Each structure stands twice: as C-alpha cells, then as structure tokens.
C-alpha cells in the first residue's frame, strides 16, 4: 500500500509540475491585441482633427482636469464637510458650477479613468478590472485567464484629440491604465508625463518622467502632493503662451495616507483630513499659477474624483462606498470653473457622468465626434452654461457588467448579492437580494424598495436595463 501511495504521489507531483509549466508558458506568451479597424478609424479621425483644427470662432480655453483618488462627495466644504477645510476648492465652486448628481464612470479606479479619458465605458475595452504591476499575482492571474491588462491602443483619448487640435498636453499624477507599450501616457496623447503608473499602495511605487524613472521606488509620498504642485507650476509657466491641457491625477486620498510633517494635525479629520487640506492648498497654488501666467480667465478647471471614498471619507448622505454601485460608490463631487464662459454661483441637479468629459470638450471646441465608434457620454456644455436639462434620459452603472440604471426619479438594480460581516468577523457572507427600485424623490439614500407601489416604473426601468445589457453583449466594442 505504501508503494502505491508513493506512486500516486509522484503522479500528483508530475501533474502539478506540468500544469505549472503550462500556466507559465501561457503567461509568458500572453499578448493583448487591439482592434485593427478601430486603430485605422482612430488614425483617420485624429488626422481629420489636425486638418480642420478648432472652430474659427472659438477662443480655445486652457483645460485643467483635476482628478482625485477616492475622494468622497462629502469631503469638501462646498459639499458639506465640517471637519475638513477646503477654502480654495470652495472658492472655485462658489465662482463656478457644481453638479450635485455627477457620477464616476465606475466604482474603482482603472475603469473610471478609462471612462473619463475616452468618453466610453471601460467594458467597451474589457478593462473593468484594476490593473496591477507586472509581477503581481493578480496580473499573472489576469494574463493566464487572457484578460485585458492595459487600455486598448485603439481607444481615442482626450489628450490625443487635444494634441491633434494644437494643444500642448501634459499629465501629472497617477496613470493606472497600463504600464507597457502601446498604452503608456506618452503613447496615448500626453507630450509630457510626471507621476506614477499605479496606485500608491502598489509596489514598486516609483515616479516617472515620461518613460524614465525619476524617483526610484519607494518614492517619498510625504512630499508627493508638493512634488505634483511643483510640476503643475512648471508646466503652466512653460506653456502659458499656447493652449494647453493639463491632467492632474492625484494619488490621494487613496491609502496609504501621507502628508508633509508641517501639516500633520492641521484638520479635524485626522490624517485623511490633513491630506485633503494639502490637496486644497495645491488648488490654491494652481489658481495662483494661472493668474500669474495671465491665463486664469480663459482656463477651464474641472475638479472631481474617480469614485467614492474607501476606508475613510464621506459619501455624503447616500448609501455605499467605493467598489459599490450604490450611490456612494459612484456619486462624486464635480466642480467646473471657467470665468470667460460659465456664470458662477450655481448648483445644478441634472444627471451627468465622467464619460461626458470628452464629448463636452469636443462641443466646446466645435470638433466632430468619431464616426466609427459609440461615445457613451454626452456633452454637458448647455447644462453648464445655461442650467439646462441633463442630456441623459438614463445613466448606467457598470462594474464589470451592467449593475443598475437610473432616470431623473428612479433607480433600478437587478437581483444581486449583498455582502455582510459581523463587527468581529473575518469572513463575509454574500446574500442574494433584489431586484430593487429606489425612488429618489423621497429616498435618496436607497433605503427602501419601491417596487410594490411603483410596479410600472420597475418594469419600465427593467426593460431599459435589459436593452442596454443586450446592446453591450452584442456590440461590446461599441462600433458603428
């Protein structure tokens, strides 16, 4: 019997070795491909933009897009924070426009950034997962499964459009859309890049200047916000005499939290508040830089977050946090400031989403939209300028798949699992629940299922949900 045992043991060991070799080979041979038809369409579109240029009657604004990482809706003074002081951001909000029903394109960072930069849901490129450094076990698993590990190069980014239109394009901060060619910042439209390729909790955490490492891992994160502010100032000074697009994508307040020593204990919200108050100081410096450069009045400043708050932070008066498609996971602050064009002091409640950024810029510059692909976003220009209605009849909440749909009054969420754990428990349990209908007119924090008293609305939104889910299955790439 002992002999038979060792025989089967050897068989088992041999099987493990063979399977490991096969898995390793599959990982080593992994290669992500891009759609050749969309690549050709992209090239033709960017050539068209280069040829026609910006509309003849348009005074092209400089564009500064500030994206925070895991900032909650309620973490700013302008949106209700009492423990954190953000006077510089609040001043821009008071002099600009806020949207109280603005949503990130996804409840986690990589697919959200995808949506902001392309105007399309990340599910169009099968990049609904978060990307990790090359040797991370999750990356190896993704490659073994044949999953997408970078933003497809056939996507058209906002930076590429603006570069083709004659803008100088720069990025400072967190990229997190792929760490290898052809999906690095300099290859997807940015003339200049300084920042990190991943979240600040991933290793190795180095800072890059264009394609070369500028600060070896582990980069000093206590000076990270300060370094980014310095890079922003230098970029504006270099390009103040030409139209520029600056994408400032902070790593904070994503954990781990760091702040320079002189700011420790400055807020009433612990380290989290200290970090946000330093971020706010960076906005004050940004405004000062724009004024000193003489370009403040015709600079469009956009401030928002990639998703809701994680371990700390306030989602406001709604349910849910980061990674969830309840409101708190995707409803984020949104502030637009543009003295030359947008009247200030307004808060609009029309629905909007991060995928609307690219279409809005195209509208501002009177540039055409691509003809070969669907843009999931819509222009917000009229709503921002005149307070008009939302351009959306419906908003869709994606997280790998379609998770919910809403209109101006109701939100439908199909059957799904809800995670539960006790306060001392180390294992969570998932319970199947739903479908649900939430009536935002009386229940903005999604506390009660309204299906029983509004069955027709539940059926209507369920039909819209199923239609969208089917469209995504049948035309995932969103080709026209």
Mean pLDDT: 95
Give me the strand/helix succession: HHEHEEHHHEEEEHEHEHEEEHHEEEEEEH
Principal-axes shape call = globular
Helix-strand makeup class = alpha/beta
- Any idea what the radius of gyration is? 23 Å
Low-confidence spans: pLDDT under 50, at least 5 residues? none
Note the main sheet: 10 strands, mixed
Number of helices: 12
| End-to-end Cα distance | 66 Å
Biggest β-sheet: strands ordered side by side in the sheet: 7-6-5-4-8-1-9-10-2-11
The level of helicity is 25-40%
The proportion of residues in beta strands is 15-25%
Tally the beta strands: 18
How would you sum up this structure in a few lines?
32% of the residues lie in helices and 17% in strands.
Secondary structure layout:
Layout lengths: L1 H27 L7 H17 L9 E7 L18 H9 L1 E3 L2 E2 L5 H10 L18 H8 L13 H7 L3 E7 L17 E5 L10 E3 L2 E4 L8 H15 L5 E6 L20 H23 L6 E7 L21 H4 L3 E4 L8 E3 L3 E2 L3 H8 L16 H6 L8 E4 L3 E5 L3 E4 L2 E5 L8 E5 L2 E4 L15 H20 L6
Parallel strand pairs: 1-8, 1-9, 2-11, 3-12, 4-5, 4-8
Antiparallel strand pairs: 2-10, 5-6, 6-7, 9-10, 13-14, 14-15, 15-18, 16-17
Helix pairs in contact: 1-5, 7-8
């Amino acid at each position: 019997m002992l002999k038979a045992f060792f025989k089967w043991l050897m068989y088992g060991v041999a099987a493990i070795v063979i399977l490991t070799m096969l898995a390793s080979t599959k990982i080593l041979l992994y290669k992500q491909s891009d759609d050749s038809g969309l690549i050709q369409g992209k090239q033709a579109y960017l050539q068209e933009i280069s040829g026609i240029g910006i509309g003849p009657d348009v005074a092209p604004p400089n564009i500064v897009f500030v994206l925070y990482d895991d900032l909650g809706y309620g973490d700013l003074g302008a949106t209700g924070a009492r423990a954190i002081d953000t006077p510089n951001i609040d001043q821009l909000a008071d002099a600009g426009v806020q949207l109280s029903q603005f949503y990130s394109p996804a409840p986690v960072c990589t697919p959200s950034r995808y949506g902001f930069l392309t105007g399309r849901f990340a599910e169009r490129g099968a990049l609904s997962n978060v990307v990790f450094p090359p040797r991370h076990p999750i990356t190896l698993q993704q490659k073994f499964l044949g999953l997408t590990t970078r933003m497809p190069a056939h996507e058209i980014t906002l930076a590429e459009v603006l570069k083709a239109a004659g803008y100088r394009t720069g990025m400072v901060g967190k990229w997190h859309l792929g760490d290898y060619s052809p999906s690095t910042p300099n290859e997807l439209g940015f003339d200049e890049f300084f920042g990190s390729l991943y979240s600040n909790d991933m290793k190795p955490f180095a800072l890059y200047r264009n394609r070369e490492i500028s600060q070896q891992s582990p980069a000093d994160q206590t000076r990270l916000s300060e370094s980014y502010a310095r890079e922003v100032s230098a970029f504006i000074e270099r390009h103040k005499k030409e139209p520029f697009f600056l994408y400032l994508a902070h790593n904070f307040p994503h954990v781990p939290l760091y702040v320079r020593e002189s700011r420790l204990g400055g807020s009433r919200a612990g380290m989290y508040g200290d970090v946000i108050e330093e971020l706010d100081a960076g906005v004050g410096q940004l405004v000062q830089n724009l004024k000193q450069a003489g370009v403040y009045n015709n600079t469009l400043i956009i401030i928002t977050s990639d998703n809701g708050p994680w371990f700390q932070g306030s989602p406001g008066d709604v349910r849910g946090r980061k990674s969830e498609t309840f409101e708190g996971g995707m409803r984020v602050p949104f502030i637009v400031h543009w003295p030359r064009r947008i009247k200030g002091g307004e808060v609009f409640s029309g629905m909007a989403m991060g995928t609307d950024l690219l279409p809005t810029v195209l509208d501002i510059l009177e540039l055409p939209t691509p003809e070969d692909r669907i843009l999931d976003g819509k222009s917000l220009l009229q709503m921002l300028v005149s307070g008009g209605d939302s351009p959306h009849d419906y908003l869709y909440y994606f997280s790998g798949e379609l998770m919910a749909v809403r209109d101006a009054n109701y939100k439908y969420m199909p059957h799904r699992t809800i995670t539960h754990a006790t306060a001392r428990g180390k294992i969570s349990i998932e319970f199947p629940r739903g479908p649900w209908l939430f009536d935002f007119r009386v229940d903005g924090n999604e506390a009660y299922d309204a299906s029983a008293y509004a069955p027709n609305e539940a059926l209507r939104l369920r039909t819209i949900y199923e239609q969208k889910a089917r469209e995504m299955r049948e035309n995932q790439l969103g080709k026209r």
